[in-house]
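[step 3/7] inverse_fold.run input=structure_tokens len=329
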């Protein structure tokens, strides 16, 4: 059996955020919330002396040709060395034989894409259609991918961004203005971002809450995607007491290590609290935002389902393109 080996460069040439990929991951969320996906808990290795962690994720989706096993390191001091914070790879195995179909040496690129897409799906169902201003907390890779993906589901003409490094903040403003042709404005505080935005996306590995409940306003949607480990926290737990609707990617996973985990521990949320999974929106079982004045929050921790979907999608895109080129020759 032939094994495809794809480098980051090849994957970047073939895979980008588009409507087909968004739909594929929406379908994956629908299957996940319906209980059709086999997805074990995340395995995580912490390397505290280097402010680092390594996550291993996987999932099997019935009727999918393969399943992915992803190794995802996050070394959050790497910016000091001039390196990206994330790297890693995905291995796609046949769901029929178990043989390796592909080794995707993406250095975290596919994870960045699928995480951005999840944020877009959250906004598609939960943010106001009249959104004009996006607020971004952070200036790393996800601060970019979340904004790119949001462009596919909402029109907006202004971005407010907060970051702690002046140099990285300036680079982000310059790059995203050139790429998206919208006003990208640096602001002096997270509070200013929250109070003035229709959608706020938190994209940091913070261990201390960044957003306070008093800053929330009618019509706001928050996507919190940085808290993917028990020690991370971007939202003060009281934020959830202000929410009209609370959604997450995987309830079991978020109650173990996401923002929901902290809110439960603080007693802000309990068994009686209504929490929906994103797949309940994508499948039509539940409606998303009901009123323009609602305050909605989506807790995204990143699922193995997304990795299997994008690894399978990437494999098929590369193979199909190679076959098409062969036919042309």
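[step 3/7] decode complete -> sequence:
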């Amino acid at each position: 059996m032939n094994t495809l080996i794809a480098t980051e460069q090849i994957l970047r040439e073939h895979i980008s955020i588009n409507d087909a990929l968004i739909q594929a991951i929406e379908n994956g969320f629908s299957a996940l919330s319906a209980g059709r996906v086999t997805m074990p808990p995340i395995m995580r290795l912490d390397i505290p002396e280097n402010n680092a962690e390594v996550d291993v994720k996987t999932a099997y989706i019935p009727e999918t040709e393969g399943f992915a096993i992803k190794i995802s390191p996050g070394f959050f001091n790497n910016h000091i060395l001039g390196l990206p914070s994330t790297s890693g790879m995905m291995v796609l195995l046949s769901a029929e034989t178990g043989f390796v179909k592909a080794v995707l040496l993406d250095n975290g690129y596919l994870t960045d894409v699928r995480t951005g897409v999840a944020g877009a799906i959250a906004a598609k169902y939960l943010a106001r259609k009249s959104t004009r201003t996006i607020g971004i907390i952070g200036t790393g890779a996800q601060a970019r991918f979340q904004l790119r993906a949001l462009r596919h589901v909402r029109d907006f003409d202004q971005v407010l961004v907060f970051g702690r490094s002046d140099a990285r903040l300036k680079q982000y403003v310059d790059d995203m203005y050139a790429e998206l042709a919208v006003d990208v404005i640096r602001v002096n505080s997270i509070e200013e971002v929250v109070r003035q935005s229709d959608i706020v996306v938190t994209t940091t590995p913070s261990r201390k809450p960044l957003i306070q409940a008093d800053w929330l306003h009618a019509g706001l949607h928050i996507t919190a995607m940085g808290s993917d480990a028990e020690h991370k926290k971007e939202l003060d737990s009281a934020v959830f007491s202000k929410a009209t609707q609370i959604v997450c990617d995987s309830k079991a996973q978020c109650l173990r290590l996401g923002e929901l985990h902290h809110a439960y521990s603080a007693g802000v949320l309990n068994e009686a609290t209504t929490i929906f999974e994103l797949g309940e929106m994508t499948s039509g079982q539940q409606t998303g935002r009901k009123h323009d004045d609602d305050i909605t929050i989506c807790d995204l921790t990143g699922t193995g389902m997304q990795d299997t979907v994008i690894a399978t999608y990437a494999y098929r895109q590369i193979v199909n393109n190679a076959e098409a080129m062969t036919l042309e020759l």
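[step 4/7] annotate
The chain has a mean pLDDT of 95.
The longest helix spans residues 304-328.
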